[in-house]
Specification:
about 475 residues; mainly alpha; Growth Hormone, Chain: A; 17 helices; about 80% helix; DHA2 family efflux MFS transporter permease subunit; cell membrane
């Protein structure tokens, strides 16, 4: 039986650690899949006898499907329980991975990637809800930091593992590696993960789901197309962008006056949650932009192949994995706002050298910067999410985790597109100048992150002062 926060406030129990690591085990499959498959573009084009445009949909369809399922997570959690939803999503993800490996053509592969994305979109926030329910605010930082180890290691290990697989095996093994992880995670989850309480959730708002379920993917698709085309003037970019924004505005208007909305947007009336959500969105470009630029930096300027690039990127994930446990303890002790402010300042310090100096691509100094950036990201993204989850009540947690994930996904998509456009437009000046320009923009985003985390720190400090006065 899991010890709840009320039974042992502030203490990390063995039962809680077991739940935490099982959730992490399941999340590892999703994070690994995303980064491993990304290195297989050329192989899929060749082995499936199709074009680059069609293969691109293997990745785009996954991201869009993931965004489609996120708005439904809150209602499904209230209806069936967070643990049951997490288990069902993990099983669906594992089955979809096996089917992807046996897809006979590009059409079937794209369709099955949609199923994978739908499952992944439910698995992440459902797992976060489970952890929030069993941990409570006093232990949330340490628990979420453990989940963050997977988030940081996935992008570092995935490209290297994908390159090794494609060097020795065929592309179906990019998906087959998920099977043992998914099966083991399911068996452990059946034993250790609490199912959660079945609720009496009201009938879902079908019209509202249609509005947001189409609006979010439309915005993400527009951002992706913007990065590919390099211009917002293309109908492929501005038409889905305008349609997506209009649908999201309509969803907000419809939701505002409803007694039982699909997503409780009233959470943004909580100032702490609102500032944490804004920080999550606007720090996305600073974090995801680096994940887009750095592999290209090694490949274009250094001529590294996929495997070498994966090895060079390990420092980033290793830095995060090393710092996350410490970041979790600091968050529980000092507050997520203060820790995130430290992280944003360190992120800025690790970014500026790429924008102002001609760095040796594979030098020791560059690797030191990657480790610093990895450690800084552990002190930035995880504490902000912890602040958001701790700011809501237990009953609001399903909606809170879903909304933070939506904000993070949209912010990440916009950030990646932004740096793709900046880099493409600067390439005529030469690769070295193009990357310095892109990293200069990344520096600007890092400065914005410092300002936002300082705002979050001030809000938390004011809340503590008010609470102390009332006490």
């Amino acid at each position: 039986m899991v010890v709840t926060a009320e039974e042992a406030p502030g203490k990390m129990t063995p039962q809680l650690w077991r739940v935490c690591w099982v959730i992490v085990f399941g999340a590892f499959a999703g994070m690994l899949d995303t980064t491993v498959v990304n290195v297989g573009v050329d192989t899929l084009v060749r082995d499936l006898g199709t074009g680059l445009g069609a293969v691109q949909w293997v990745f785009t369809a996954y991201l869009i499907a993931l965004a489609v399922s996120l708005p439904a997570c809150g209602w499904l959690t209230r209806r069936y329980g967070a643990g049951r939803l997490w288990l069902a999503a993990l099983v669906a993800f594992t089955v979809a991975s096996a089917l992807c490996a046996f897809a006979g053509n590009i059409g079937w592969l794209i369709a099955l990637r949609v199923l994978q994305g739908l499952a992944a979109g439910l698995m992440v926030p459902a797992g976060q809800t489970v952890l929030g329910e069993v941990a409570g605010p006093a232990r949330l930082g340490r628990v979420v930091s453990t989940l963050g180890i997977v988030v940081s290691l996935g992008p570092a290990i995935g490209p290297l593992l994908g390159g090794l697989i494609l060097h020795s095996l065929s592309w179906p093994w990019l998906f087959l590696i998920n099977i043992p992880i998914g099966v083991a995670g399911t068996l452990l989850g059946l034993r250790y993960v609490p199912r959660g309480e079945r609720g009496t959730a009201h009938r879902p708002d079908g019209t509202g789901y249609l509005l947001i379920g189409v609006g979010i993917p439309a915005v993400i698709y527009a951002a992706t197309a913007w990065g590919e085309t390099g211009t917002f003037a293309s109908p492929r970019v501005f038409l889905p962008a305008l349609a997506g924004i209009a649908l999201l505005v309509a969803f907000c208007v419809r939701t505002r006056g409803r007694e039982h909305p699909l997503l409780d947007l009233g959470l943004f009336g909580n100032r702490t949650f609102a500032v944490a959500a804004a920080t999550t969105f606007f720090t996305g470009p600073a974090m995801f932009g680096a994940m887009f630029l750095l592999p290209l930096y090694f490949q274009v300027l250094g001529g590294s192949d996929v495997v070498t690039t994966g090895l060079l990127m390990i420092g980033l994930g290793a830095g995060s994995a090393i710092a996350l446990p410490l970041a979790g303890r600091f968050t529980d002790r000092y507050g997520g706002g203060a820790v995130a402010l430290w992280g944003s300042v360190a992120t800025l310090a690790a970014t500026v050298p790429f924008a102002v100096a001609d760095l040796p691509v594979d030098g020791v100094f560059v690797q030191a910067l990657l480790v610093l950036r990895g450690m800084a990201s552990a002190f930035l993204m995880m504490p902000v999410g912890t602040v958001a989850f701790a700011a809501v009540t237990r009953s609001q947690l399903p909606d809170g985790t879903a909304q933070i994930n939506i904000v993070m996904r949209v912010g990440g998509a916009v950030g990646t597109a932004l740096f793709a456009v900046v880099l493409a437009n600067a390439l005529p000046d030469g690769p070295a100048m193009a990357f310095r320009t892109a990293f200069a923009w990344l520096t600007g985003c890092s400065v914005a992150a410092v300002g936002l985390t300082a705002w979050l720190w001030r809000v938390q400090r004011r809340n503590r002062a008010v609470a102390g006065t009332m006490a």
